[in-house]
Specification:
Elements: H1 2-5, E1 12-14, E2 20-22, E3 28-29, H2 34-44, E4 51-52, H3 53-60, H4 69-93, E5 107-110, E6 113-116, H5 124-140, H6 144-155, H7 169-195, H8 199-212, H9 217-229, H10 233-251, H11 257-267, H12 277-280, H13 315-326, E7 333-337, H14 344-354, E8 363-367, H15 378-388, H16 400-410, E9 417-423, H17 426-429, E10 440-445, E11 455-458, H18 464-475, H19 477-482, H20 484-493, H21 498-510, H22 516-523, H23 526-532, E12 534-535, E13 538-539, H24 540-548, H25 553-561, E14 570-571, H26 572-579, H27 583-595, E15 600-603, E16 606-608, H28 611-624, H29 627-652, H30 656-661, H31 677-698, H32 703-715, H33 729-742, H34 745-759, H35 767-782, H36 792-811, H37 815-832, H38 835-851, H39 859-875, H40 879-895, H41 899-916, H42 919-936, H43 939-956, H44 959-976, H45 983-999
Parallel strand pairs: 7-10, 7-11, 8-9, 9-10
Antiparallel strand pairs: 1-2, 2-3, 4-6, 5-6, 12-13, 14-16, 15-16
Helix pairs in contact: 2-4, 3-4, 5-6, 5-7, 6-7, 7-8, 7-9, 8-9, 9-10, 9-11, 10-11, 13-14, 15-16, 18-20, 18-21, 20-22, 23-28, 25-27, 25-28, 26-27, 26-29, 29-31, 29-32, 31-32, 31-33, 32-33, 32-34, 33-34, 34-35, 34-36, 35-36, 36-37, 36-38, 37-38, 38-39, 38-40, 39-40, 40-41, 40-42, 41-42, ...
Domain OmpR/PhoB-type: 29-116
Domain Bacterial transcriptional activator: 123-267
Family: Belongs to the AfsR/DnrI/RedD regulatory family.
């Protein structure tokens, strides 16, 4: 029979008898000892559903499991995976057709448990249950012959007592349950055989069944009826007497009313008992099913479209949905949500085809969106469903409610899967839901939070590996093999959106001569990005347009405006500042955009655009917003950004008040950044957004936006110890050009200063030269010696410019020039009367003097001055600069040939650096400590500290710190290996040399000194 043939030629499990795994070539084997078999049976009886380790422990042991129970379960699963993998491989070697479910992949790990990834129809016990259900439904519809045939095949699957020999309470419980199912199916099969007129030949079968189940009155009744119809009335009466005796003697009970009535009818010679199938057929249909008599019998509908042949990934999602739809939940509803183009329909079709075996009465499918994109009318959808279920078009009810009622009635005794694709809302879906427990519904929608569901799966883009695989399926695997990095970059540029990935793959397939890099270059231009993403008539842009068209005017304006600053992520306060609306009102708008799947939220109050949605929003904004509206949005974003950075500076910097005193007036109060380390962490998180807003301001052509962005970037170097400032380099460079074009000299000079400081942290080949040029330009604009009375902003800019030039010169080993700039910064600090500022500038001067080889005879004096400054910094609670002056003192010991003392002092500094969260100071201390330890001969300790330094340097993204850390690690590794330069040591030394070349420095020249 067709429903049994599914178990031939594919791997499956037998539980109806001894537990056996049958490979695809038909080879059967016992999967391990009884313990592992019991675990496999527990997973198999809940195939496709997560079974936790605790559930498996409870099922294997009685009330008091051993302490090692969880470990035992894990070990059993490992053994099972090994066995299944070996059995699957043997099946392939034997020439069997490849089976997609093989080996260790059959048992998957999910959360705190496991899931068996075999379709339910490949577990004989589950298939048996489905077949008995199918037989009951066929019998209820009057098709006794088919029902009897199904049951005969189902009963033929048994090979002995179910779960034979398995230990544990779960196996015992399931044995009883399956035995009862078998007995009930046996009774039903014999009764159906009688209904088909097989009364004479069924008598021996009933007698055999009674030997196994002597106390089941239905079997005694079937025997009496079979004998009576075979013209053996006397034997029928004797059968009744035997039944009474068995029940009375062994059970102590009397026969029931059904058996007594049958006995009376036989005694009376009731001819109606002789009725055979043709007369009994209609009577067998329950009254609640007779509504179907007006509808001609049709084949079960099979409306599911094919699964896309390039369907990729989504394994966990498929398992979750299959478990929900084919489990034991009554009337399950599953919902798949996500933005347009994310693959909701493909996942629904993949799931629908995977669970078809659970719905033998058919599958209904409806696209709930009309060709023009409008929501389809539920009444029209129901008309299609009812027609497919056999209702003539002329007999369709007129009203929606009547059609929905008839739909529920027709499905009341059927097991049908209903797939509703692209739902617009709950009101559209509710009339399309069947009421029967055995039916299931799978809905896809952009958002459908209000619909009750057994499971809701919110789809995101594919993971990077699956994204590349999907491109390869469309474009050909050759493209992936030839240009793997470029294909991976394409996948990232598409936002890992399946629709976009298919479009990319299609374009590559049609252009075999194009290098992948060509398409990648075209997609890097946002103005043409969406135009590149087309699949025939369907475009990514059109998918987004459908969601955008449903927005109210206020939400549409917010959707467009908030995309313009290119923020990586933003909060309610920032959005309120950009939109100039109250925060509570803005939060409602943002949540509505999330519900429309046009915004994403990863944490409460934090929002972001998917890359492609953001590109669509900006392209639409340029069309629908006026030039003035565009400028205003960027200006308000720059205002909020500047205010937020200023707040972080005030919360963390000793000079915060002076640094922010002459900033351009701001309309916004900025973000709530917290205090101390909270503000520092905020700045680290906000840095990508600061860069994005600054770049948009630079390109806005608005002088006010440019000036505000310059103020923000001028303050950013206050956090050089904790954030990778190099990320701001493109924005800083663009702002210089914009300031020159639109702003006064004060803004231009500040822009040059900010660019000079930030570029020193960047990684381009000429970054140090460009940094120096910008700093010198700032001095040219503000003058070499401005007084505080001339304006605090230009005064501080020049003071810090001298400090930065001193730093650059020290890096390039031009110590004479470095000392001159450092001394000038000290002189300017003294003019302010701020002893703390003077102490910091003097510390910088001491750092440079300590590094200068010409000062080696003066190290003792430098060391004494360091201790003097350390006392001042300690009393001023200036931890950041105290760390620097202590490291400078340690440097004098290191340069003076006293590495052990230097190492001891570096060790004192290290905990302070770590507790303050200053990654740059910590990294400097680590690599210098590694250098000192290496000189003491403790090479292994030097390796350990150099590795830590490299990790910190990579966080700061400063090339000089990375170069020094690679160099320290390479030399330490070389020392550990007694001077032998192995592959790892050579790799670090080569990387250090490469970084020094990028910076334009000689290997090991200069040191990292602070501002």
């Amino acid at each position: 029979m067709s429903h049994l043939s599914a178990l031939h030629g594919v791997a499956h499990l037998r539980l109806l008898g001894p537990v056996e795994y049958v490979s695809a070539d038909g080879t059967a084997g016992r999967p391990g000892a009884p313990g592992p078999q019991a675990v496999l049976a527990a997973l198999a009886l809940r195939a496709g559903t997560l079974v936790t380790i605790d559930q498996l422990v409870d099922g294997l042991y009685d009330d008091d499991p051993p302490a090692s129970a969880r470990r035992v379960i894990v070990n059993y699963v490992h053994r099972l995976r090994t066995y299944l993998d070996r059995a699957h491989a043997a099946g392939r070697e034997g020439g069997a057709e490849s089976d997609r479910d093989g080996g260790a992949t059959v048992i998957g790990t999910m959360a705190d448990g496991y899931v068996l990834r075999l379709p339910a129809e490949r577990v004989d016990a589950l298939l048996f249950g489905r077949l008995t259900l199918r037989a009951r439904r066929a019998a209820a519809q009057g098709d006794s012959a088919y029902a009897a045939s199904v049951l005969k095949g189902a009963l033929g699957m048994w090979q002995g007592p179910a779960l034979a020999g398995l230990p544990g309470p779960y196996a015992q419980e399931q044995r009883r349950s399956l035995a009862e199912q078998r007995a009930s199916a046996t009774e039903h099969h014999l009764e159906l055989s009688l209904a088909c007129g097989r009364h004479e030949e069924v008598v021996p079968e009933i007698l055999c069944a009674l030997e196994a189940y002597p106390y089941r009155e239905r079997l005694h009744g079937a025997l009496m009826l079979a004998l009576y119809r075979s013209e053996r009335s006397a034997d029928a009466l004797l059968a009744y007497d035997h039944a009474r005796q068995v029940l009375a003697d062994e059970m102590g009970i009397d026969t029931g009313p059904v058996l007594d009535e049958l006995h009376a009818a036989v005694l009376a010679g009731d001819r109606t008992l002789l009725a055979v199938p043709d007369t009994a057929r209609t009577a067998a249909v329950p009254a609640e099913v007779r509504v179907r008599s007006a509808v001609p019998a049709l084949r079960a509908p099979a409306q599911l479209p094919a699964v896309p042949c390039d369907f990729t990934g989504r394994h966990e999602e498929v398992c979750t949905l299959v478990a929900a739809l084919s489990g034991h939940t009554s009337h399950p509803v599953a919902v798949i949500t996500g933005m347009g183009g994310v693959g909701k329909t493909a996942l629904a079709l993949r799931t629908g085809h995977a669970v078809m075996g659970s719905f033998p009465d058919g599958q209904l499918y409806a696209e709930l969106r009309t060709p023009c994109g409008a929501p389809g009318a539920p009444a029209d959808v129901l008309a299609g469903f009812l027609t497919s279920l056999g209702v003539p078009h002329e007999r369709l009810p007129a009203s929606l409610s009547d059609r929905a009622a008839l739909f529920r009635t027709l499905l009341s005794d059927r097991a049908v899967l209903v797939v509703l694709d692209n739902a617009a809302g709950v009101a559209q879906v509710e009339p399309l839901l069947p009421g029967a427990d055995q039916c299931a519904v799978l809905v896809t929608a952009r958002a459908l939070a209000a619909l009750p569901a057994a499971v809701k799966v919110s789809l995101k883009g594919l993971d990077p590996h699956d994204s590349v695989e999907l491109i390869g399926k469309v474009a050909g695997i050759r493209r992936i093999e030839e240009e793997p990095d470029a294909v991976a970059a394409l996948a990232a540029a598409s936002g890992h959106l399946p629709l976009a990935l298919r479009a990319i793959g299609a374009r590559l397939a049609l252009r075999p001569a194009w290098p992948v890099a060509t398409l990648l270059s075209r997609m890097s231009d946002e103005a043409r990005l969406l135009g590149e993403l087309r699949v025939g008539e369907l475009t990514v842009e059109a998918v987004f347009e459908q969601s955008y068209a449903q927005l109210s005017p206020q939400r549409a304006r917010a959707f467009l405006a908030l995309s313009l600053p290119h923020c990586v992520e933003f909060g309610v306060k920032g959005a309120a500042a950009v939109l100039e609306l109250p925060e509570r009102e803005v939060e409602d708008v943002l949540e509505a955009l999330v519900d429309a799947v046009l915004l994403e939220t990863r944490a409460p109050g934090r929002y972001r655009y998917h890359d492609l949605v953001g590109a669509y929003a900006r392209a639409t904004a340029r069309v629908e917003l006026t030039d003035e509206e565009l400028r205003q949005v960027v200006r308000r974003a720059a205002d909020f950004m500047c205010a937020s950075v200023a707040g972080a500076v005030l919360a963390t910097q000793p000079l915060g008040g002076r640094l922010t005193a002459e900033l351009r007036p701001r309309r916004s109060a900025g973000e709530d950044v917290g205090t101390g380390q909270e503000a520092v962490q905020w700045m680290r998180r906000a840095l990508p957004t600061v860069a994005a807003v600054a770049e948009q301001a630079a390109g806005s052509g608005d002088a006010e936006a440019v000036a505000l962005a310059v103020d923000g970037l001028m303050l950013a170097p206050c956090f050089e110890e904790s954030v990778p400032l190099g990320m701001l380099a493109p924005a800083a460079t663009a702002l210089v050009r914009a300031a020159v074009a639109y702003c006064d000299e004060d803004v231009v000079g500040t822009a040059h200063y900010a660019a000079g400081v930030i570029l020193k942290k960047h990684s381009s080949l000429d970054c140090l030269d460009r940094s120096r040029a910008h700093l010198l330009k700032a001095l040219e604009i503000f003058g070499e010696s401005p007084a505080p009375a001339d304006g605090l902003r230009p005064f501080l800019a020049v003071l810090f410019t001298h400090a930065m030039l001193a730093h650059l010169d020290a890096m390039c080993a031009d110590f004479s020039s470095a000392r001159a700039h450092a001394e000038r910064s000290v002189e300017m600090a003294m003019v302010t009367g701020d002893q703390g500022l003077v102490t910091r500038r003097r510390t910088l001067l001491l750092q440079i003097r300590a590094q200068d080889p010409g000062s080696r005879g003066d190290l003792a004096r430098i060391r004494a001055q360091c201790r003097e400054l350390a006392d001042l910094l300690t009393s001023g609670n200036d931890v950041k600069w105290l760390i620097r002056v202590m490291m400078t003192e340690a440097d004098t010991l290191l340069y003076g040939g006293r590495p052990a003392e230097a190492a001891a002092l570096y060790r004192q500094v290290l905990p302070r650096a770590r507790t303050t969260g200053h990654a740059r100071n910590e990294t400097e201390c680590l690599y210098r400590l590694a250098e000192a330890l290496l000189l003491t001969g403790d090479a292994q300790a030097a390796v350990d500290h150099a590795r830590q330094a490299l990790q910190g340097a990579q966080l700061t993204q400063e090339h000089l710190l990375m170069a020094r850390s690679h160099q320290a690690l390479g030399r330490a590794l070389q020392a550990v290996r007694a001077g032998y330069v192995d592959g790892e040591a050579a790799g670090h030394l080569e990387k250090a040399a490469e970084l020094y070349r990028v910076l334009g420095l000689h290997t090991g020249s200069g040191a990292a000194v602070g501002q």
